[in-house]
């Protein structure tokens, strides 16, 4: 079994600005810069056969390159914050690419992702961080803006858990054209 997800890697030139925000939040498990990505679709645990078929379906996706940028911050978890993140500016091409990844998953009969697509870059997972403190952190970084960047491809990643942060490995690369 492979734990898989499709995602766009965050360009290296955006890493320093994101890392500057990674302070001042109790209970935060800050993500290393090599883990910065924008998830298109989380597939979960997938068999070897389904992983091969998923790779073929993702490789067949047709989508032109498009521009993205990050702006502002947010958090998941209404009463008990579980993560803080940088918001991806609204993008129809991004939503379309995510929908195509979701279609590939549905064609294989993979479980539905019941969470709405909220494009973001996870900066930290939170453990016991008070809601008020999370709100203050998000407000302090509300003016965060990245430069725009071109998305010319995406990846199928495997996720490997162990001691410390998960390790993500790009198993396949897909070019947008």
TrEMBL record:
Reactions the enzyme catalyzes: a 3'-end 2',3'-cyclophospho-ribonucleotide-RNA + H2O = a 3'-end 2'-phospho-ribonucleotide-RNA + H(+)
InterPro entries documented for this protein: Cyclic_Pdiesterase (IPR009097), RNA_CPDase (IPR004175)
Motif HXTX 1 positions after renumbering to this chain: 37-40
Active site: 37 (proton donor), 120 (proton acceptor)
A Pfam cross-reference name: 2_5_RNA_ligase2
Record motif HXTX 2, residues: 120-123
Domain of life (superkingdom): Bacteria
Gene Ontology terms for molecular function: 2',3'-cyclic-nucleotide 3'-phosphodiesterase activity; RNA 2',3'-cyclic 3'-phosphodiesterase activity
Enzyme Commission identifier(s): 3.1.4.58
Top EC category: hydrolase
UniProtKB keywords: Hydrolase
UniProt xrefs under SUPFAM superfamilies: LigT-like
Coiled coil: none
Family: Belongs to the 2H phosphoesterase superfamily. ThpR family.
Biological function: Hydrolyzes RNA 2',3'-cyclic phosphodiester to an RNA 2'-phosphomonoester.
Cross-referenced NCBIfam families: 2_5_ligase (TIGR02258)
Protein name: RNA 2',3'-cyclic phosphodiesterase
Organism lineage string: Bacteria, Pseudomonadati, Pseudomonadota, Alphaproteobacteria, Hyphomonadales
